[in-house]
Amino acid sequence: MSGADQALESYEDINFEGIDDDLAAFQEDEMVQQALQRGVDLKKYGGDLGNDLKKAELASVDHYIQNYDLYHGQYQELQECDRVLARMEEMLHGFQADLGEISSEIKHLQEASISMSIKLKNRRLAAEKLHAFLEKTNIPPSVLSHITSPHVHEGFLEAVVTLGKRLNYLEQHRPASDGSSLDVAPADTSCGRGLLPELEKLKIKAISKIRDYFTNQFNNIRKPKTNICMLQQTALVKYAPLFHFLNAEQTAVAEELRSFKTLEQIEQEPLLVHVALAENNKVFYEEIFRSTLKHLIDAATNEFLFIVDFFRTSPKDTFNRLYGKTIAGLLENFENYLVACHDVVGLLLLIRMTHLFRLVMQRRRIPILDPMFDRIAMLLWPRFKQLLDANVKSLKQTMAVRRMNAQDLSPHYVTRRYAEFVASIVILNIVTASTSQHQQVQQSQQELLAQLSAAGLGEANDLTAGMMGMDLAGGGGELMIRQDINMLRNELVTLLERSAAQIPAYKEQRVFLINNFDQVLSVFQERGLMSEEVQSFETLLMQQRELFAEEEIKAFFPRLISFVAQSEQVYADAVASGSHEPVRMSLDERACEALVRDFATNWRAGIQQINDDVLKYFANFRNGMEILKQVLTQLLLYYTRFQDLIKKSFGRPPPFVRDIVSNATILMEIKRYSRTF
């Protein structure tokens, strides 16, 4: 390449863009303008300026070399300052980050503090409510020990009072009025559902113990030379809250004790009117009736024996002249009382007392008051029958008019009233004299008749006529009572069936009937009844349990139950056709396999759902467990029948047989759900 070409190429590399702007800037520079005005040679001036710069540079270098140590020390100090400043910057950045974290933590702690403050406030409020709830539901160990101990003392009394309070609170089906159960009914809380069955056991134990205690005390009153007043104050009045507990929890047992007390004290000293008035004592009419008859039979005994010993002749006429107005006044007052009396149990109690007083007079061999006893019985029985019929009519009217809640599957209040009413009647309807007593009375009657005949008293047959033919059960009526009780039972069953018909689901209808029949049997068992009524309701309960078990299985295993029923019907029809050849079943293998696999997959879940249903439907856990075992046993029977159908249908076991759940496995699962209460 020639020199011209290189010059041209270098010339082309020069960038002339912006040269005009640079020239304009130089012209505007003050020093350039002064130099141009003075006519300075710029080239020479530029060279001089370059030389000056070189000299200044050399002088600067010499100065630097001469002051190297000073500049080097300053440089080291600057480097150290830079490092210190860098560390300080790093520390400040760290402080800034830490302060940011601390600020975030403070904000978080503030938020957490506010949240914890709210939680603490809520927990304190909840703790107050929970404390109030626990105070009303807690069962101290002393309550358990005192109720289960064999002795009755002040500790037992306090335990029963505490138990009564806990039952009253936990049996509420609405939220507690004091807010201690929040918006949940105490009976619906987990505590209520868990405690109530246990408290029921304690209640039954306490009722049995209280009943035995009062029965023993009433027997002690009958013993000779007993200080009745002291016994009443120390053994009865002192423990009156026990009787109040009975009256609240088991009315029929309280009525039974009341009846027992009156019947057992039939020959105790009667009430003294002036003492009762002075002490402002209030007693039941049955006690007034007993005291009146006690006064009368004692006075009549003394007078009759005096008449026989002193006058010798016509003792009946003489006695009637002396006591005719007294007996007439007593009967008139008694008739006035019966007009306004509606107490069926009280009337039956009066019937039994009348009978017992008749037996007392027979043991004394003085039948002079038999006409009066006959008249009292003739007044009592029709009124008793009238009131029993009124109860039957009341049940009919309830069935015809009152519509019960179709969604409520628990026992109706009519059922419990019926059970307590019938239990009281059955208890009082027991024959009051044993066979040995009957023989003793008959022997006494024969001896009295012989003595009167030997004494030449022509009225002997008249005096003993009523006594010889009197029914020991209180003037008869037992057959009539049984018939009326049967009518009451039939009307109750009809009422419950009509009420159950208002419930849409068939299974819930069975649940409603089971709960009501079980309620009746529970009351009967608590009273210790062994009668025709118990057998009747046991039969009704078993029928409804079987129907419920069938419906419950159909609800969770519908395909299995339907398949077994249809296949067995086909097999039965084939057998009934009269063919002489062996009947061979032909089942759809795919359908059988599908059922086997479906059951193997879902049977445990189905049993769990059945268990949940039983616990939900039946408040009485013992009854519920019996029903659960019956349902699961019925399921096992269906599954066994299904296996039998497979064996009859297939000559060689099909492949799906290995998926069949064994009966032993199902039995183990059933045992797992079987509980002892």
Short characterization:
The chain has 26 helices and no strands. It is mainly alpha-helical.
Q: Please state the overall shape, judged from the principal axes of the Cα atoms.
A: elongated
Q: In total, how many beta strands? A: 0
- Whole-number radius of gyration? 53 Å
Provide the residue-averaged pLDDT. Answer: 78
Report the sheet with the most strands, covering strand number, pairing sense and barrel closure: none
Q: Stretches where pLDDT falls below 50 for ≥5 residues?
A: 400-404, 431-446, 455-475
Structural class: mainly alpha
Helix content: over 70%
Number of helices: 26
N-C termini distance: 121 Å
Q: Can you write the helix and strand succession as a string?
A: HHHHHHHHHHHHHHHHHHHHHHHHHH
What percentage of the residues does DSSP assign to strands (E)?
under 5%
Description:
The chain is mostly helical. It has helices at residues 3-13, 19-28, 30-38, 42-66, 68-137, 141-148, 154-170, 190-222, 228-236, 240-249, 251-264, 273-278, 285-310, 315-340, 344-363, 370-401, 413-428, 435-454, 460-468, 478-500, 506-527, 532-556, 558-576, 589-617, 621-649, 663-673. It starts with a helix and ends with a helix.
SSE layout and pairing:
Layout (H helix, E strand, L loop, with lengths): L2 H11 L5 H10 L1 H9 L3 H25 L1 H70 L3 H8 L5 H17 L19 H33 L5 H9 L3 H10 L1 H14 L8 H6 L6 H26 L4 H26 L3 H20 L6 H32 L11 H16 L6 H20 L5 H9 L9 H23 L5 H22 L4 H25 L1 H19 L12 H29 L3 H29 L13 H11 L4
